[in-house]
Write a structure and sequence with these properties.
The chain is of the alpha/beta class and 237 residues long. It has a single domain, classed as Alpha/Beta hydrolase fold, catalytic domain (Rossmann fold), CATH 3.40.50. The strands form 2 sheets. It has a 6-stranded parallel beta sheet with strand order 2-1-3-4-7-8, with helices on both faces. A two-stranded antiparallel sheet has the order 5-6. β3, α3 and β4 form a beta-alpha-beta unit. The two termini are 13 Å apart. The model has no long low-confidence stretch (mean pLDDT 97).
Length: 237
């Protein structure tokens, strides 16, 4: 069985993977869920994008054997930067509705002006450079399939997000040269971006396999059984 390294996106942390990690372990896989710097419950928000990259690269390079890396949402571009620094330790890359960026671009380059202006203003108002989590944003765009219990539990886990993850332009040239198998776990009920946007980002990387699951953007939390079934299919490819 494989070791699976799970990497969360913006506002999230390693606890968001708890249900999926449990299901993967039941199937015999070893699991490691990372929490990016600044996203732990008591972390300082004074982080740099390079902190994300070095943390992920160091976590991968510390593994004894090759691992499968799964990245959700904003973890996509962090992986683009980090995996080339640990490529000998990566067996497969699984993107899950992930922001896969062109060279020289930042995530905010693809976010509507009114949304990024609002997020920047909220971060300035907080005074620590972090974007607070808006329940209406989560309910309306991310966890659209969550019941009330799931929604409340998710809101108790999510944290304020250092703005730097949105504003930093990446260098994807080294990632583009990698020869590592890639798969997309595509949550088809995702309302956080225009239809097909995450699929389009992934297709730029080449003719790689896609596994579809009927989940929203928070599928690992709102429908972990369906999500993990799809993830296991990705792992088996």
């Amino acid at each position: 069985m494989s070791k699976i390294v799970l990497i969360h996106g913006a506002w999230h942390n390693g606890k968001c993977w708890d249900a999926v990690a449990r299901l993967l372990k039941e199937k015999g896989h070893e699991v490691m869920a990372l929490t990016l710097p600044g996203n732990g419950p008591n972390d300082s928000k004074n982080v740099k994008y390079a902190d994300y990259v070095s943390y992920v690269a160091e976590s991968l390079n510390s593994q004894k054997d090759k691992v499968i890396v799964v990245g959700h949402s904003s973890a996509g571009h962090v992986m683009q930067m980090a995996i080339p620094l640990a490529k000998e330790k990566v067996e497969k890359i699984i993107f899950n509705n992930a922001w896969i960026l062109p060279d020289g671009k930042a995530q905010f380059d693809f976010v509507p002006d009114e949304i990024k202006s609002m997020m920047r203003a909220m971060a300035v108002e907080r005074g620590d450079g972090a974007i607070p989590i808006d329940p209406k944003f989560v309910r309306g765009l991310l966890a659209t399939q969550a019941d009330e219990e799931q929604f409340d539990a998710l809101m108790n886990i999510l944290v304020t997000q250092p703005l730097v993850i949105m504003e930093t332009s990446i260098d994807s040239k080294a990632f583009e040269k990698l020869d590592i198998p890639m798969v997309l776990l595509y949550c088809t009920k995702d309302m956080s971006v225009p239809p097909g946007a995450f699929l389009g980002m992934f297709k730029v990387l080449g003719d790689n396999p896609v596994v579809e699951v009927e989940c929203d953007h928070e599928g690992m939390f709102t429908n972990p059984s369906a999500y993990t079934k799809g993830l296991l299919e990705c792992i088996a490819l």
